[in-house]
Amino acid sequence: MTWLRDIETFLIDLDGTLYRGNEVIEDAPAFIEWLQSSGRRYLYVTNNSSRTPEQVADHLRHLGIPAQTEDVFTSSQVAAEYIKTDGRSGKRVFAVGEGGLYTALTEAGCEVVKEGPADYVVQGIDRDFSYEKLKHASLLIQSGALFISTNVDKALPTEHGLLPGSGSLAAAIRTASGTEPLVMGKPAARMIDFAIERLGVSKDRAVVVGDNLETDILAGVNADVRTVLVLTGFSKEEHIESAEGRPTVVLHSLTDLRRHVEGTEQ
Amino acid sequence: MTWLRDIETFLIDLDGTLYRGNEVIEDAPAFIEWLQSSGRRYLYVTNNSSRTPEQVADHLRHLGIPAQTEDVFTSSQVAAEYIKTDGRSGKRVFAVGEGGLYTALTEAGCEVVKEGPADYVVQGIDRDFSYEKLKHASLLIQSGALFISTNVDKALPTEHGLLPGSGSLAAAIRTASGTEPLVMGKPAARMIDFAIERLGVSKDRAVVVGDNLETDILAGVNADVRTVLVLTGFSKEEHIESAEGRPTVVLHSLTDLRRHVEGTEQ
C-alpha cells in the first residue's frame, strides 16, 4: 500500500464516509483539516441530486467539517456539465427533480421546460414525483429526448427507514419508455472522470474514498482510479467477495487512511 | 386443428381482440352472438385494473358486443380473489390504484387502509400515482406486507401515444422495496386458473383467445391451456418465432376461429 504515499487528490464520498445522517463520523473533521494543511487536493463527490453544492457545504460545516461550495460536486452538476458539452444544439430540458437539479441546469445555461418539446429528460430524486411527470418524461423520451438519470440509488437510508431513491423513479421511466437512462452519478465512471477533469489532476495520483462498494468503489473501478473502502458506513468486509468492483484497499477509518498516506501505519 | 371443434369455453381478451380503443373489430359482435346461440361458455379476461366489470361491460355493449357484468373478469378481481382465499388472517390492504381496484377489494371483504399497518400492498394502474404512495407502499412491503401487482403491462397504447402502464409503477415499487411483486394478470397463470375455476369448466375444453403473445398467449401457456393468437391487434406473425410462449394456433380473425370450431374452415 505504499502507493498511497504518492496520492495527491482525494475524491471523497459523504454519507457513510464523513457523516451518517446528522451525525459526524468522529475523525472526519481532523482528516479534512489534515488534507488542507498538508496541501492535498480533495473534492466531495456525492450522488445527492436534490441539494445545491451550497446546501451540501452548509451541512458539512454544520457538522464541523471544512467545506466551500466549490469543494462539492453533485450528480446534478455532472448532468448539467454533460449537457453543456454534449453535441446536441438544443438545450431544452424537462427535469424531474428538486432544487439542486434545477439550479445546476439553470447555471449551466439549460432552458428548463415544463412541457415539451425537449432535447433532454433529466431525472433525479423528486419527492413530488407523479404519474403526470412520469407520463411527460416517457412521451418526451419516446419522441427522441435523451434520458439522463442523475443517479440510480435504489433507496435512501433515513431515520424513517429506506425511502425510495432516484433509482426507483428511473425504473418507472425506463419501463414506461422502454429506454435505458444514461447514468451520471456513481457507479458511472463519468462522475469520477468529470471530477478529475475539473480538478485538472492525474488519475494515477488520485483515489476514490467511500463506504459503498456498489457506488463509490465501482465508480473508481469503472473510471480506472484506485479506491479506498472505509468500513464506517454501508458496505461490510464480507460484502467484498461478491462485489462487482473490488476496492484497491480496505481500511477501518479515515485516520487509518491518513496513517497510510503519511507512512506511519505501523 | 380439429381439437378446436371440442372447445366449449373461450377466455377472450378485449383490446386488440374485440376492439381497438373505441373502434369495434368488425366481426366481434357476431362472434360473441354465435358463442351465445351455440351454447358455448365465455369470459372476458382483461388486465385492465382501473375499470369495474360493470364499466367494462358498458363499454362492450356501447360497441355492440353482448356483455353482462358477470361476463367480465379483471386483474383487480383476481387480486381480490387471491387475497380472499390466501392464508393470511389479516385482510388490510394498502391500494395503489383506481376505482376498479377499490371496488374489487371492497366487494371481496378487504379493509382498504390509507396508512399502515397493512397485510397487503396491491398495485395497479394509478394515474394519481405519487412519491408519497410509492413511499408508503415500499415501507409497508419492507415491514412485511405482501406485494401484489394486478398486472405488469409496461405501457398503455392510447391516442396520445404509449402512456405509462401498471408495470412502470410496479417497477418503481419493486426497485424501492427490493421485493418482486406477485403478479395477478396475464401472463401469470393465476388469472387463467381463476377464470377456469370460476366457470367450473375443464382446461382441456377451454382456449385462451387474444392478440398479444407476451400476455394472452403466454398466460395460456403458463396455465397449460391451449391458445389462439388472432392477428387483429398487437402481435404480428413474425413475432412468434422469438416469443417466450407460442400459440397453439394462429388465425387471422374471430370469423376464422368460428369456422375452425364449426369445422367449416375449407
UniProtKB/TrEMBL annotation, chains A, B:
Sorted UniProt keywords: Hydrolase, Magnesium, Metal-binding
Organism domain of life: Bacteria
A Pfam family the protein falls into: Hydrolase_like
EC number: 3.1.3.-
Transmembrane regions listed in the UniProt entry: none
GO MF annotation, one: hydrolase activity
Co-factor requirement: Mg(2+)
CDD domains according to UniProt: HAD_Pase_UmpH-like
The keyword Magnesium is annotated on this UniProt entry: yes
Keyword Magnesium: yes
Assigned protein family: Belongs to the HAD-like hydrolase superfamily. NagD family.
Role noted for this protein: Catalyzes the dephosphorylation of 2-6 carbon acid sugars in vitro.
Protein name: Acid sugar phosphatase
Species the sequence originates in: Tumebacillus amylolyticus
